[in-house]
Amino acid sequence: MHALQTFMSSLSIGSPTSWEGLTVYPLLRPTAPEPFYDTLSEAIRGGTLHISEVSESGSVPELRVVNDGARPVLIIDGEELVGAKQNRIVNLTVLVPQLATITLPVTCVEAGRWSHVSREFMSAERAYHASGRRSKLGQVSMSMRAHNIAMADQSAVWSEIAEKSARLGAFSATRAAAARPRA
Fold it and tell me: What SS3 state is found at 153?
């Protein structure tokens, strides 16, 4: 209880933000400790994290992640990776240990491409949209319970992307989730 009281007493109330009758007051902490990990984008930009297909032939639901850095790397559920043979989103949040290689469970968000555009993935610096992440998370949770595998229903994800693209009037030659609306 003492630790909680100490923490709470270190907070201050920031300037409110209002929208349509809702007002939010941020709680600010004057000095938060630096995180003990790097983010996906930081580690890729810094050259310490390398994400590629698991092999030359690849495997849609998994990627190879090599962390050459001295710090763990936090990869968050729904972050989009672009490049290699097709764009993917991450199926669950993972903390990649320093100096480690792991297999990362992912889902394809670009149905019409299976050819290299690069050897390694880059961070798209965005996450898959909220309703798509929610749906995918439900699929991954069911897969974990039934088979202990963090896998989504790939066909359902592609269908959801196609429906959203049609609704928004967006087009992508490779049926990518990040298609832009037509002009």
Answer: coil
162: nearest Cα among 136, 132, 133: 132
With 0.70 as the threshold, say if the pTM is over it.
Answer: yes
Cβ-in-10-Å burial (0-12, 13-18, 19+) of 107 comes to buried
Amino acid sitting at position 43: A
Question: Distance of alpha carbon 43 from its chain centroid, rounded?
Answer: 14
Q: How many CA atoms lie within 13 A of 123 on its CB side?
A: 22
Torsion of CA 14, 15, 19, 23, to 10 degrees: 60
Tens of pLDDT, residue by residue over 113-138, are: 999 999 999 999 999 999 999 999 99
Q: Which residue has the higher pLDDT, 76 or 4?
A: 76
Tokens 């580690």 belong to: 43
What are the two backbone dihedrals, phi and then psi, of residue 23, each rounded to the nearest 5 degrees? -120, 130
Q: What is the largest CA-CA distance in the chain?
A: 58
Residue 180: pLDDT band (50, 70, 90) is: low
Q: What tokens were used for 79?
A: 């972050």
- Tell me the mean pLDDT in the region 39-45: 97
Buried b / exposed e across 65-101, counting CB within 10 Å, b at 16+? bbbebebbbbbebbbbbbbbbbbbbbbbebebeeeee
